Amino acid sequence: MAEVRLFCIFLLLAVCTAVRYEPNWESLDARPLPSWYDQGKIGIFLHWGVFSVPSYGSEWFWWQWQGQKIPAVVDFMKQNYRADFTYADFAPMFKAEFYNPDQWADIFNASGAQYVVLTTKHHEGFCNWPTKYSWNWNAGDVGPKRDLVGDLANSIRKRTNIHFGVYHSMFEWFNPLFLQDQANNFTTQNFVRDKTMPELYELVNNYEPDLIWSDGDWMTSYDYWNATNFLAWLYNDSPVKDKIVVNDRWGKDARCKHGGFLDCDDSYNPGILQKRKWENCMHLDKYSWGYRRRMKYEDVLGMQPLLQEVMETISCGGNILINVGPTSYGEIPPIFEERLRQMGDWLKVNGEAIYGSKPWSHQNDTVTPGIWYTSKNGSTGPVVYASIPQWPENGEVFLGAPTPSSSTKVTLLGYPKTFDFNPGVSGGLTISIPPINVNDMPCQWIWVFKLEGIKN
To answer: Taking Cα atoms as reference points, which of 91, 119, 107, 59 lies closest to residue 331?
Structure first.
Protein backbone atom coordinates (compact mmCIF):
# COMPACT_ATOMS: atom_id res chain seq x y z
CA MET A 1 0.00 0.00 0.00
CA ALA A 2 2.89 2.33 0.84
CA GLU A 3 4.38 1.68 -2.61
CA VAL A 4 1.08 2.64 -4.24
CA ARG A 5 0.95 5.91 -2.27
CA LEU A 6 4.55 6.67 -3.22
CA PHE A 7 3.81 6.04 -6.88
CA CYS A 8 0.79 8.35 -6.73
CA ILE A 9 2.88 11.08 -5.14
CA PHE A 10 5.51 10.79 -7.87
CA LEU A 11 2.78 10.85 -10.53
CA LEU A 12 1.18 13.93 -8.98
CA LEU A 13 4.53 15.71 -8.81
CA ALA A 14 5.21 14.88 -12.46
CA VAL A 15 1.85 16.29 -13.51
CA CYS A 16 2.23 19.42 -11.36
CA THR A 17 5.73 20.15 -12.63
CA ALA A 18 4.96 19.50 -16.32
CA VAL A 19 5.81 22.45 -18.55
CA ARG A 20 2.85 24.65 -19.37
CA TYR A 21 3.21 26.88 -22.40
CA GLU A 22 1.75 30.36 -22.30
CA PRO A 23 -0.02 31.94 -25.30
CA ASN A 24 2.93 34.16 -26.22
CA TRP A 25 5.85 33.59 -28.58
CA GLU A 26 8.54 33.70 -25.91
CA SER A 27 6.96 30.68 -24.22
CA LEU A 28 5.82 28.85 -27.35
CA ASP A 29 9.14 29.21 -29.15
CA ALA A 30 10.90 27.66 -26.15
CA ARG A 31 9.16 24.32 -26.75
CA PRO A 32 11.65 21.73 -28.07
CA LEU A 33 10.88 20.49 -31.56
CA PRO A 34 9.90 16.80 -31.39
CA SER A 35 12.93 14.83 -32.56
CA TRP A 36 11.12 12.74 -35.18
CA TYR A 37 10.89 15.75 -37.50
CA ASP A 38 14.59 16.58 -37.63
CA GLN A 39 15.49 12.89 -37.84
CA GLY A 40 13.15 12.21 -40.76
CA LYS A 41 14.44 14.90 -43.17
CA ILE A 42 12.14 14.09 -46.14
CA GLY A 43 8.38 14.56 -46.52
CA ILE A 44 5.76 14.36 -49.26
CA PHE A 45 3.33 17.26 -49.83
CA LEU A 46 -0.07 16.71 -51.49
CA HIS A 47 -2.09 19.57 -53.01
CA TRP A 48 -5.55 18.14 -53.71
CA GLY A 49 -8.95 19.76 -53.90
CA VAL A 50 -11.69 21.10 -56.19
CA PHE A 51 -8.94 22.92 -58.14
CA SER A 52 -7.84 19.47 -59.31
CA VAL A 53 -10.95 19.34 -61.54
CA PRO A 54 -10.22 22.24 -63.91
CA SER A 55 -6.52 21.43 -63.38
CA TYR A 56 -5.64 24.46 -65.45
CA GLY A 57 -3.00 27.00 -64.51
CA SER A 58 -2.54 26.07 -60.87
CA GLU A 59 -4.29 25.45 -57.56
CA TRP A 60 -5.04 29.21 -57.53
CA PHE A 61 -7.45 28.72 -60.45
CA TRP A 62 -10.53 30.24 -58.77
CA TRP A 63 -8.67 33.39 -57.78
CA GLN A 64 -7.02 33.65 -61.21
CA TRP A 65 -10.45 33.33 -62.83
CA GLN A 66 -12.64 35.58 -60.70
CA GLY A 67 -10.19 37.52 -58.55
CA GLN A 68 -7.31 38.46 -60.82
CA LYS A 69 -9.33 37.79 -63.99
CA ILE A 70 -6.29 36.55 -65.88
CA PRO A 71 -7.28 36.61 -69.59
CA ALA A 72 -6.08 33.08 -70.40
CA VAL A 73 -8.07 31.64 -67.49
CA VAL A 74 -11.17 33.70 -68.30
CA ASP A 75 -10.99 32.58 -71.94
CA PHE A 76 -10.57 28.94 -70.86
CA MET A 77 -13.84 29.14 -68.93
CA LYS A 78 -15.69 30.93 -71.74
CA GLN A 79 -14.61 28.39 -74.31
CA ASN A 80 -15.32 25.27 -72.27
CA TYR A 81 -18.16 25.97 -69.82
CA ARG A 82 -21.63 27.50 -69.95
CA ALA A 83 -21.99 31.20 -69.21
CA ASP A 84 -23.59 30.74 -65.77
CA PHE A 85 -21.07 28.12 -64.60
CA THR A 86 -19.74 28.82 -61.08
CA TYR A 87 -16.67 27.50 -59.30
CA ALA A 88 -18.98 25.57 -56.96
CA ASP A 89 -20.16 23.58 -60.00
CA PHE A 90 -16.73 21.95 -60.13
CA ALA A 91 -17.26 20.32 -56.73
CA PRO A 92 -19.62 17.49 -57.90
CA MET A 93 -16.96 16.65 -60.51
CA PHE A 94 -14.36 16.15 -57.78
CA LYS A 95 -15.32 12.50 -57.36
CA ALA A 96 -12.00 10.86 -56.45
CA GLU A 97 -13.51 7.70 -57.88
CA PHE A 98 -10.16 5.90 -58.21
CA TYR A 99 -8.79 7.08 -54.86
CA ASN A 100 -7.05 4.16 -53.17
CA PRO A 101 -5.36 5.44 -50.01
CA ASP A 102 -3.65 2.07 -49.44
CA GLN A 103 -1.97 2.45 -52.82
CA TRP A 104 -0.93 6.02 -51.98
CA ALA A 105 0.52 4.86 -48.68
CA ASP A 106 2.53 2.17 -50.47
CA ILE A 107 3.92 4.73 -52.93
CA PHE A 108 4.93 7.07 -50.11
CA ASN A 109 6.48 4.21 -48.20
CA ALA A 110 8.50 3.22 -51.27
CA SER A 111 9.71 6.82 -51.64
CA GLY A 112 11.65 6.73 -48.38
CA ALA A 113 9.79 9.78 -47.07
CA GLN A 114 9.26 9.93 -43.33
CA TYR A 115 6.21 12.18 -43.25
CA VAL A 116 3.27 13.11 -45.50
CA VAL A 117 1.32 16.38 -45.45
CA LEU A 118 -2.13 16.35 -47.08
CA THR A 119 -4.02 19.49 -48.05
CA THR A 120 -7.16 19.37 -45.92
CA LYS A 121 -8.34 22.81 -47.10
CA HIS A 122 -6.74 25.22 -49.57
CA HIS A 123 -7.63 28.88 -50.12
CA GLU A 124 -10.78 27.84 -52.01
CA GLY A 125 -12.27 26.75 -48.67
CA PHE A 126 -13.31 23.23 -49.73
CA CYS A 127 -12.64 20.80 -46.88
CA ASN A 128 -11.39 17.30 -47.73
CA TRP A 129 -13.10 15.87 -44.65
CA PRO A 130 -16.78 15.87 -43.54
CA THR A 131 -16.48 18.91 -41.31
CA LYS A 132 -19.28 20.38 -39.22
CA TYR A 133 -18.17 23.89 -40.15
CA SER A 134 -18.61 23.99 -43.92
CA TRP A 135 -22.05 22.89 -45.09
CA ASN A 136 -22.13 21.42 -48.61
CA TRP A 137 -18.56 22.60 -49.30
CA ASN A 138 -16.74 19.52 -48.05
CA ALA A 139 -15.87 16.07 -49.30
CA GLY A 140 -18.53 14.41 -47.14
CA ASP A 141 -21.44 16.36 -48.61
CA VAL A 142 -20.45 16.81 -52.24
CA GLY A 143 -18.03 15.29 -54.75
CA PRO A 144 -16.25 12.26 -53.24
CA LYS A 145 -18.80 11.94 -50.41
CA ARG A 146 -16.16 10.32 -48.25
CA ASP A 147 -13.53 11.30 -45.71
CA LEU A 148 -10.43 11.85 -47.85
CA VAL A 149 -8.34 12.94 -44.87
CA GLY A 150 -9.32 10.13 -42.51
CA ASP A 151 -8.96 7.46 -45.17
CA LEU A 152 -5.38 8.46 -45.95
CA ALA A 153 -4.48 8.85 -42.27
CA ASN A 154 -5.77 5.33 -41.59
CA SER A 155 -3.91 3.79 -44.53
CA ILE A 156 -0.62 5.47 -43.67
CA ARG A 157 -0.84 4.38 -40.04
CA LYS A 158 -1.91 0.86 -40.97
CA ARG A 159 0.68 0.20 -43.68
CA THR A 160 3.70 2.38 -42.84
CA ASN A 161 5.69 4.07 -40.08
CA ILE A 162 5.31 7.42 -41.82
CA HIS A 163 4.11 10.44 -39.82
CA PHE A 164 0.82 11.93 -41.01
CA GLY A 165 0.44 15.70 -41.26
CA VAL A 166 -2.25 18.13 -42.40
CA TYR A 167 -2.04 21.35 -44.41
CA HIS A 168 -4.72 23.91 -43.57
CA SER A 169 -5.26 27.34 -45.09
CA MET A 170 -6.52 29.78 -42.50
CA PHE A 171 -8.07 32.19 -44.99
CA GLU A 172 -10.45 31.67 -47.92
CA TRP A 173 -10.59 33.88 -51.00
CA PHE A 174 -14.33 34.42 -51.20
CA ASN A 175 -15.72 33.45 -47.80
CA PRO A 176 -18.20 36.23 -46.80
CA LEU A 177 -17.13 36.07 -43.15
CA PHE A 178 -13.50 36.59 -44.05
CA LEU A 179 -14.31 39.36 -46.53
CA GLN A 180 -16.31 41.15 -43.86
CA ASP A 181 -13.46 40.87 -41.34
CA GLN A 182 -11.12 42.16 -44.03
CA ALA A 183 -13.44 45.10 -44.76
CA ASN A 184 -13.37 45.86 -41.03
CA ASN A 185 -9.57 46.03 -41.21
CA PHE A 186 -9.47 42.79 -39.19
CA THR A 187 -10.87 44.47 -36.09
CA THR A 188 -13.54 41.74 -36.06
CA GLN A 189 -12.82 38.00 -35.90
CA ASN A 190 -16.05 36.36 -36.99
CA PHE A 191 -14.30 34.20 -39.58
CA VAL A 192 -11.69 33.04 -37.07
CA ARG A 193 -14.27 32.31 -34.38
CA ASP A 194 -16.85 30.54 -36.55
CA LYS A 195 -14.78 28.91 -39.29
CA THR A 196 -11.01 28.59 -39.33
CA MET A 197 -10.26 27.86 -35.67
CA PRO A 198 -13.13 25.37 -35.23
CA GLU A 199 -11.75 23.53 -38.26
CA LEU A 200 -8.28 23.33 -36.76
CA TYR A 201 -9.56 22.00 -33.44
CA GLU A 202 -11.70 19.48 -35.32
CA LEU A 203 -8.74 18.28 -37.42
CA VAL A 204 -6.59 17.77 -34.34
CA ASN A 205 -9.25 16.00 -32.29
CA ASN A 206 -10.52 13.81 -35.14
CA TYR A 207 -7.26 12.80 -36.84
CA GLU A 208 -4.50 13.45 -34.29
CA PRO A 209 -1.91 14.54 -36.86
CA ASP A 210 1.81 14.63 -36.16
CA LEU A 211 2.25 17.90 -38.06
CA ILE A 212 0.14 20.98 -38.82
CA TRP A 213 1.27 22.91 -41.88
CA SER A 214 -0.50 26.25 -41.59
CA ASP A 215 -0.88 28.64 -44.53
CA GLY A 216 -2.99 31.59 -45.73
CA ASP A 217 -1.74 33.77 -42.90
CA TRP A 218 -0.05 36.60 -44.73
CA MET A 219 -2.76 39.27 -44.89
CA THR A 220 -2.83 40.10 -41.20
CA SER A 221 -1.27 39.46 -37.81
CA TYR A 222 -1.22 36.38 -35.59
CA ASP A 223 -3.48 38.22 -33.12
CA TYR A 224 -6.34 38.18 -35.62
CA TRP A 225 -5.87 34.45 -36.14
CA ASN A 226 -5.76 33.72 -32.38
CA ALA A 227 -2.67 31.72 -33.26
CA THR A 228 -0.88 31.78 -29.91
CA ASN A 229 -4.01 30.66 -28.04
CA PHE A 230 -4.43 27.73 -30.40
CA LEU A 231 -0.77 26.72 -30.15
CA ALA A 232 -0.83 26.90 -26.35
CA TRP A 233 -3.79 24.49 -26.35
CA LEU A 234 -2.02 22.32 -28.93
CA TYR A 235 1.15 22.05 -26.82
CA ASN A 236 -0.55 21.77 -23.41
CA ASP A 237 -3.86 19.95 -23.67
CA SER A 238 -4.44 18.50 -27.14
CA PRO A 239 -4.29 14.75 -27.81
CA VAL A 240 -1.08 15.32 -29.81
CA LYS A 241 0.68 17.67 -27.38
CA ASP A 242 3.83 15.53 -27.07
CA LYS A 243 4.41 14.75 -30.75
CA ILE A 244 2.93 17.63 -32.74
CA VAL A 245 5.14 19.75 -35.01
CA VAL A 246 4.03 23.05 -36.56
CA ASN A 247 5.48 25.52 -39.02
CA ASP A 248 5.70 29.31 -38.83
CA ARG A 249 2.76 30.52 -40.94
CA TRP A 250 0.54 31.89 -38.19
CA GLY A 251 0.43 35.57 -39.23
CA LYS A 252 2.41 38.02 -41.32
CA ASP A 253 4.31 39.04 -38.19
CA ALA A 254 5.06 35.43 -37.21
CA ARG A 255 6.25 33.97 -40.49
CA CYS A 256 9.98 33.18 -40.56
CA LYS A 257 10.20 34.23 -36.88
CA HIS A 258 7.98 32.06 -34.68
CA GLY A 259 6.43 28.62 -34.46
CA GLY A 260 8.08 25.23 -34.71
CA PHE A 261 10.18 25.07 -37.88
CA LEU A 262 10.54 27.91 -40.39
CA ASP A 263 9.03 27.74 -43.90
CA CYS A 264 9.36 31.47 -44.59
CA ASP A 265 8.50 31.36 -48.31
CA ASP A 266 7.60 28.66 -50.79
CA SER A 267 10.69 26.82 -52.05
CA TYR A 268 12.71 28.47 -49.28
CA ASN A 269 16.32 27.35 -49.60
CA PRO A 270 18.86 29.79 -48.12
CA GLY A 271 21.86 27.70 -49.18
CA ILE A 272 23.66 28.26 -45.87
CA LEU A 273 23.29 26.86 -42.37
CA GLN A 274 20.46 28.45 -40.35
CA LYS A 275 20.18 29.02 -36.61
CA ARG A 276 16.72 27.39 -36.44
CA LYS A 277 15.21 24.30 -37.99
CA TRP A 278 13.73 25.08 -41.39
CA GLU A 279 12.03 23.39 -44.31
CA ASN A 280 12.22 23.65 -48.07
CA CYS A 281 8.74 22.99 -49.47
CA MET A 282 9.03 22.58 -53.23
CA HIS A 283 7.08 21.08 -56.12
CA LEU A 284 8.01 18.52 -58.77
CA ASP A 285 5.87 20.28 -61.38
CA LYS A 286 7.86 23.47 -61.92
CA TYR A 287 4.70 25.54 -62.50
CA SER A 288 2.10 24.32 -60.05
CA TRP A 289 1.49 22.64 -56.70
CA GLY A 290 -1.80 21.14 -57.89
CA TYR A 291 -2.26 18.75 -60.81
CA ARG A 292 -2.17 20.31 -64.31
CA ARG A 293 -3.58 18.46 -67.30
CA ARG A 294 -1.25 20.44 -69.58
CA MET A 295 1.88 19.42 -67.67
CA LYS A 296 4.64 18.30 -70.02
CA TYR A 297 7.51 15.92 -69.38
CA GLU A 298 10.04 18.74 -69.31
CA ASP A 299 7.93 20.60 -66.72
CA VAL A 300 8.74 17.96 -64.12
CA LEU A 301 11.94 18.18 -62.10
CA GLY A 302 14.39 15.41 -63.01
CA MET A 303 16.03 13.09 -60.50
CA GLN A 304 19.46 14.71 -60.71
CA PRO A 305 18.29 18.23 -59.73
CA LEU A 306 15.80 16.78 -57.23
CA LEU A 307 18.46 14.83 -55.35
CA GLN A 308 20.84 17.77 -55.54
CA GLU A 309 18.12 19.87 -53.89
CA VAL A 310 17.69 17.18 -51.24
CA MET A 311 21.40 17.12 -50.40
CA GLU A 312 21.78 20.91 -50.40
CA THR A 313 18.76 21.33 -48.11
CA ILE A 314 19.76 18.68 -45.60
CA SER A 315 23.40 19.80 -45.57
CA CYS A 316 22.21 23.22 -44.40
CA GLY A 317 20.08 21.77 -41.60
CA GLY A 318 16.74 21.79 -43.38
CA ASN A 319 14.04 19.27 -44.16
CA ILE A 320 12.65 18.96 -47.67
CA LEU A 321 8.91 18.63 -48.41
CA ILE A 322 8.41 17.39 -51.99
CA ASN A 323 5.03 18.18 -53.52
CA VAL A 324 2.97 16.15 -55.96
CA GLY A 325 -0.50 16.99 -57.23
CA PRO A 326 -3.04 14.13 -57.40
CA THR A 327 -5.75 14.10 -60.08
CA SER A 328 -9.39 14.86 -59.36
CA TYR A 329 -10.16 11.18 -59.85
CA GLY A 330 -7.78 10.25 -57.07
CA GLU A 331 -4.55 8.99 -58.61
CA ILE A 332 -0.91 10.00 -58.28
CA PRO A 333 0.22 10.76 -61.87
CA PRO A 334 2.69 8.08 -63.05
CA ILE A 335 5.56 10.53 -63.59
CA PHE A 336 5.28 11.67 -59.95
CA GLU A 337 5.09 8.08 -58.76
CA GLU A 338 8.21 7.28 -60.78
CA ARG A 339 10.12 10.16 -59.20
CA LEU A 340 9.09 9.09 -55.69
CA ARG A 341 9.99 5.43 -56.23
CA GLN A 342 13.33 6.38 -57.79
CA MET A 343 14.08 8.55 -54.79
CA GLY A 344 13.27 5.59 -52.56
CA ASP A 345 15.68 3.36 -54.48
CA TRP A 346 18.39 6.00 -54.08
CA LEU A 347 17.68 6.34 -50.36
CA LYS A 348 17.98 2.58 -49.84
CA VAL A 349 21.65 3.04 -50.76
CA ASN A 350 22.33 6.50 -49.38
CA GLY A 351 19.85 6.94 -46.55
CA GLU A 352 22.68 6.55 -44.04
CA ALA A 353 23.85 10.03 -45.06
CA ILE A 354 20.33 11.47 -44.74
CA TYR A 355 18.22 10.10 -41.90
CA GLY A 356 19.34 11.25 -38.48
CA SER A 357 22.22 13.24 -39.95
CA LYS A 358 23.33 16.68 -38.83
CA PRO A 359 25.17 19.54 -40.54
CA TRP A 360 28.95 19.32 -40.61
CA SER A 361 31.34 22.21 -40.02
CA HIS A 362 31.28 22.76 -43.79
CA GLN A 363 28.00 22.58 -45.71
CA ASN A 364 29.52 22.55 -49.21
CA ASP A 365 33.05 21.94 -50.39
CA THR A 366 35.60 24.73 -50.28
CA VAL A 367 37.10 23.84 -53.66
CA THR A 368 35.00 21.48 -55.78
CA PRO A 369 31.53 22.90 -56.64
CA GLY A 370 28.34 20.86 -56.22
CA ILE A 371 29.60 18.75 -53.29
CA TRP A 372 27.53 18.89 -50.09
CA TYR A 373 28.28 17.40 -46.69
CA THR A 374 26.34 15.80 -43.83
CA SER A 375 27.66 14.13 -40.70
CA LYS A 376 26.89 11.64 -37.92
CA ASN A 377 28.46 10.34 -34.76
CA GLY A 378 29.80 6.90 -35.65
CA SER A 379 30.80 4.07 -33.31
CA THR A 380 34.48 5.01 -33.62
CA GLY A 381 34.06 8.78 -33.95
CA PRO A 382 32.55 11.39 -36.27
CA VAL A 383 31.59 10.34 -39.80
CA VAL A 384 31.32 12.77 -42.70
CA TYR A 385 29.40 12.12 -45.91
CA ALA A 386 30.26 13.89 -49.17
CA SER A 387 27.80 13.80 -52.09
CA ILE A 388 29.12 14.26 -55.60
CA PRO A 389 26.74 15.17 -58.46
CA GLN A 390 28.85 13.93 -61.37
CA TRP A 391 30.88 10.75 -61.63
CA PRO A 392 34.49 11.86 -62.30
CA GLU A 393 35.72 10.99 -65.79
CA ASN A 394 39.37 10.81 -64.74
CA GLY A 395 38.77 8.52 -61.75
CA GLU A 396 39.60 11.18 -59.15
CA VAL A 397 37.60 13.58 -57.00
CA PHE A 398 39.15 16.26 -54.82
CA LEU A 399 37.53 17.26 -51.52
CA GLY A 400 38.92 20.50 -50.15
CA ALA A 401 37.09 20.65 -46.81
CA PRO A 402 38.08 17.40 -44.98
CA THR A 403 41.45 17.09 -43.26
CA PRO A 404 42.59 13.45 -43.40
CA SER A 405 44.52 11.62 -40.69
CA SER A 406 46.54 8.40 -40.56
CA SER A 407 43.35 6.50 -39.67
CA THR A 408 41.12 7.99 -42.36
CA LYS A 409 39.01 5.48 -44.28
CA VAL A 410 37.08 6.30 -47.47
CA THR A 411 34.22 4.20 -48.82
CA LEU A 412 31.35 4.67 -51.26
CA LEU A 413 27.89 3.98 -49.86
CA GLY A 414 26.51 0.83 -51.42
CA TYR A 415 29.93 -0.39 -52.63
CA PRO A 416 31.92 -2.95 -50.61
CA LYS A 417 35.52 -1.83 -51.19
CA THR A 418 37.68 0.83 -49.54
CA PHE A 419 39.10 3.58 -51.75
CA ASP A 420 42.64 4.92 -51.79
CA PHE A 421 43.24 8.62 -51.32
CA ASN A 422 46.10 11.12 -51.28
CA PRO A 423 46.26 14.05 -48.85
CA GLY A 424 46.39 17.44 -50.56
CA VAL A 425 49.51 19.56 -50.27
CA SER A 426 47.64 22.35 -48.47
CA GLY A 427 44.76 20.31 -47.08
CA GLY A 428 41.93 18.22 -48.42
CA LEU A 429 42.25 14.85 -50.12
CA THR A 430 42.01 13.31 -53.56
CA ILE A 431 39.98 10.11 -53.75
CA SER A 432 41.19 7.58 -56.32
CA ILE A 433 38.31 5.64 -57.87
CA PRO A 434 39.13 2.39 -59.65
CA PRO A 435 37.11 1.27 -62.67
CA ILE A 436 33.73 -0.07 -61.51
CA ASN A 437 31.59 -2.36 -63.63
CA VAL A 438 28.30 -0.71 -64.52
CA ASN A 439 26.44 -3.61 -62.88
CA ASP A 440 28.26 -2.93 -59.61
CA MET A 441 27.40 0.78 -59.45
CA PRO A 442 25.39 1.22 -56.25
CA CYS A 443 23.03 3.92 -57.55
CA GLN A 444 22.40 6.60 -60.15
CA TRP A 445 22.43 10.42 -60.24
CA ILE A 446 24.36 11.31 -57.07
CA TRP A 447 26.97 9.30 -55.17
CA VAL A 448 27.95 9.60 -51.53
CA PHE A 449 31.42 8.98 -50.08
CA LYS A 450 31.74 8.07 -46.40
CA LEU A 451 34.75 9.53 -44.64
CA GLU A 452 35.81 8.08 -41.28
CA GLY A 453 38.71 9.17 -39.11
CA ILE A 454 39.20 12.67 -40.45
CA LYS A 455 40.72 15.32 -38.18
CA ASN A 456 37.99 17.95 -38.54
So the answer is: 107
